[in-house]
Amino acid sequence: MAKLMTGPWLWKHLSALVVLILLVNLGLWQLRRLEERRSLNQNITAALNQPAIPLTGGPVNPAELHFRRVEVTGVFDNAAAIVIRNQLLGDRPGLHLVTPLRIKGSDTAVLVDRGWIPRDDSDPEPASLSAYDLPGQVTIEGIAYQTQTRPSSLAPFDPPLKADQTRLVAWFRVDIERIQEQVPYPLLPIFIRQLPTPDAPTGTLPQPDSGATLDEGPHLGYAIQWFSFAVILVVTYGLFLRQEVRRR
Questions:
Q1: Contact 85, 97 (CB under 8 A)
Q2: Tens digit of pLDDT for each residue in 92-141?
Q3: Are 142 and 194 in contact (CB under 8 A)?
Q4: Per-residue pLDDT tens for 190-221?
Q5: Is 145:191 a contact under the CB 8 Å cutoff?
Q6: Where are the beta strands (DSSP E) in 90-197?
Q7: β-pairing verdict for 69-76 and 170-171
Q8: Which residues pair with 116 in a beta bridge?
Q9: What span, in angstroms and rounded, lies between the C-alpha atoms of 42 and 21?
Q10: 158 φ, ψ to 5°?
Q11: How many whole angstroms separate alpha carbon 218 and alpha carbon 175?
């Protein structure tokens, strides 16, 4: 038994302890992420349950309006519509149609994500979106979001305009500052994901999607996984030491 406390064995004990501490901390980190997600969901739910805030074209605070229900009236600038790539409706790949809405009584517009449209595999960057034009004055209710940024350095980026281009049609995200470069009127520093209209016929395109998912994510499952690995390590290493003692 004394030999199990000598130099080579001490390194084995230390290595097992370091791995155990790492596994436990990974489990605790996932539990913290779970609590953060639950807190965020509570804030989102509270914001969604508040009355819709009318947008008139005046200055807004993006942080204060993030995940808030808003309402705006205006006319869509259909000619300036763009699409957001890599969007799913269930398991169906497609795009999201984003169109500037010229706000009534103002020279300002706000980008509206009108929802999902199917993608033509032979034409992933559609040259024309006129099939989805919506003329005349409309009132839109939806959820406000801050501008989207690249989530990591590995995420794809929207390229700058080429010399022979006046606008990009297909984008990876709603980057309001970049999109502002290709429209002649000021944009609010938020965009809206349109909520579904109760009386809209089934299958109407675009199909709105608020984007507000309130699930708790995989954090609890990951925490259980890391703690399980920690238990397996303790049991396995204990059995290994027991076998070594018996052998000696």
A1: no
A2: 888 999 999 999 999 999 999 999 998 775 555 565 688 888 999 999 99
A3: yes
A4: 999 998 877 766 777 888 876 666 677 788 89
A5: yes
A6: 92-103, 109-118, 137-146, 170-171, 187-194
A7: unpaired
A8: 96, 207
A9: 32
A10: -85, 120
A11: 28
